[in-house]
Amino acid sequence: MSTDPDADASAQEGPPAPRRSPAGGVLAAVKETVLVVAVALVVSLVVKTFLLQAFFIPSQSMERTLDIGDRVVVSKLSPGPFELHRGDVVVFSDPGGWLTQSAPAQRGPVGTVVAEALTFVGLLPEDSDDHLIKRVVGLPGDRVACCDASGRVSVNDTPVDEGAYLFPGAQPSEQPFDVVVPEGQLWVMGDNRAESADSRYNRDKPHGGFVPVDLVVGRAYAVVWPVGHWDWLGTPDDFDDVSGASGTK
């Protein structure tokens, strides 16, 4: 039997553990980073496709609710699992001829690829070259008219007080109209009525100024940028007294 305590300790410890080389540690860190980024991109793409999407506000048509340069987040669950209601702010694809062709942003080849990739997965807001944002005033089957003796818009013969969101000093409409919204379509108007080429001014275009519900990307529910403009875009109560169905999918 050995009586050397150092020998006994060495025997118990066993062979030394292999040391990781610096190159191996760097490679492992790179692999982990790539995996995390890939997972993040997949999650972002899934969120953008089924749940949320960011959009950039390019014009003054929705002032005072939304300013030029604001970024809004849109819920893709409305229409769908959740209904659209009168007063909701919605983003929709151009029904045909509502938008003029704008000049593309000036970026280099690399910048263009990066911007398109980040937009595709939802990490950058969509530009508005082929999208518009307006407020739903009439749902399928609604009769929407302007103006009554007090200068107000009426829906199903009920005057609507739009003071909660109209641009200060703006008239409900300087152009008279009286329409019935077809099935599966919407009547939309901007909050800054004098600066909004909305349903009123596109009646000679495809769909007669109405917006097919199928073209609605979703309901804008929050301003997320810039920080000083953070706001929740809820459904106003201005339409609560209007008769008829209150929502549509």
Question: Any overview of this molecule?
Answer:
With 249 residues, this protein is of the alpha+beta class. Helices cover 20% and strands 24% of the residues. It has one domain (25-99, 110-236): Ribbon (Umud Fragment, subunit A), CATH 2.10.109.10. 29% of the residues are buried.
Spatial separation of the terminal alpha carbons: 87 Å
How many structural units, i.e. domains?
1
Overall geometric form: elongated
- Look up the CATH topology: Umud Fragment, subunit A
Keywords for this entry:
249 residues; alpha+beta; eight-stranded antiparallel β-sheet; four-stranded antiparallel β-sheet; 3 helices; 14 strands; elongated
Task: Quickly describe the structure.
The chain is an alpha+beta fold. 20% of the residues lie in helices and 24% in strands.
Topology at a glance:
Elements: H1 5-13, H2 22-50, E1 52-56, E2 71-75, E3 84-85, E4 89-93, H3 109-120, E5 131-138, E6 143-146, E7 153-155, E8 158-160, E9 177-180, E10 185-189, E11 211-212, E12 216-225, E13 231-232, E14 247-248
Antiparallel strand pairs: 1-2, 2-12, 3-14, 4-5, 4-12, 5-10, 6-7, 6-9, 7-8, 10-11, 12-13
